[in-house]
Amino acid sequence: MLVVAVVAGFLVADGVAMYEAQRTAARLAEEVAQEAAHTFLATHGSEDAAHTIAQSLAAEAGVELIGLEFHKGTTRWFEATVLVRSEAYFLKYFPLLKDRLAWQATSVVHF
Fold this sequence. Notes:
single chain; alpha+beta
């Protein structure tokens, strides 16, 4: 019975860690896209400055910036994609599951 309780505790902790990683990915993708758009406007159209600030925000948060795309058309927008790895305690030891413990989120900011 004690073993079942311990395993259940680890699974709950891993579930909380996975939820936190998912929320962090969504929040950081939104933040990176907003900052890129703000920097783009503040520098009068410098995409390099927007990419630099996006990379520094991702590095500061300890996440991986997968992509930052600037789209032009009738409107302009930045699309940011980040990858956050979950701090799982128990599931990381299972070969089939450890590759699925990362969360990717994409956010779009129109300006």
